[in-house]
Amino acid sequence: xxxxIYVTLPLVGLxxxxxxxxxxxxxxxxxxxxxxxxxxxxxxxxxxLKATDxxxxxxxxxxxxxxxxxxxxxESEEPGKPKPSTLQPQDxxxxxxxxxxxxxxxxxxxxxxxxxxxxxxxxxxSEAQRALLAWERVLDATPATPEQQETARKAIALLxxxxxxxNVDPLTAQRIVLHASCDRDRAKVIExxxxxxxxxxxxxxxxxxxxxxxxxAGAKPDADKPRPPVALWFQGTSADSPASxxxxxxxxxxxxxxxxxxxxxxxxxxxxxxxxxxSTLRPLAEPPSGGDTELLLRSAITRRxxxxxxxxxxxxxx
Length: 318
Known about the structure:
By secondary structure, this protein is of the alpha+beta class. The protein has helices at 5-24, 35-53, 112-124, 128-141, 146-159, 184-204, 256-276, 293-299, 303-310, and strands at 174-182, 209-217, 230-235, 247-249.
């Protein structure tokens, strides 16, 4: 049952009063203490003071004086310390203006380290298109180390899907023909693969080229004779246009994915050979043994490289 507050408060006061009265009823607060009691207190105090004086104070131990030293590492060895950037605000270009395909080419003369720094900072600024151009300059305009090239290719592979095609007008794309020749039976197998590769080159070049396939199928191979090899080469659209060198594949594996990778490898080698003949471009990466050639085509060839390489196949010979 709940006790009302007007009953609780008097009870609390009464209880406290009874406890105080019970503990103090025999105390004489107004009478001074007896002389014998004061003498006893004085004696106890003197004894305590003498005991304190007899204790010798503890001498502090002498401090060992050590001259503080600081371990200073060379700048290149200090862990976690980034190199200071040498970039100036004007090095980034006018970010509100659409860049050219050879953007940052003059800046690339300062070396791969500068271009890697620029590309990284442009990514931090969410400037994907310009960051992609800067990473491309690492590959096609600087003597980058293998590690820097690998970093640039990985960045390009990530950034390419985030930006629109460089050229969205098919009428202005550079037209190139991928020629292939083989026997009739093999042609039936590799034609759809080569058509897929040609379409992939158009996309990989960011719309800068329009690659068409022309497959020349020979006669059916004789059972008692070796099959002719598969031949591949690039050429312009006219019959008298310059052509690339021709690469041949003596035999193709039975597995279709392996066939596609081998065909892609030869096509990459054809492009790499054509790029090597241009002094304004850095050589393309050597294709790794057993590597993903399709990924290499998408990441190792810059858009500027596609544009300059395709111009070696004019529509009509001069």
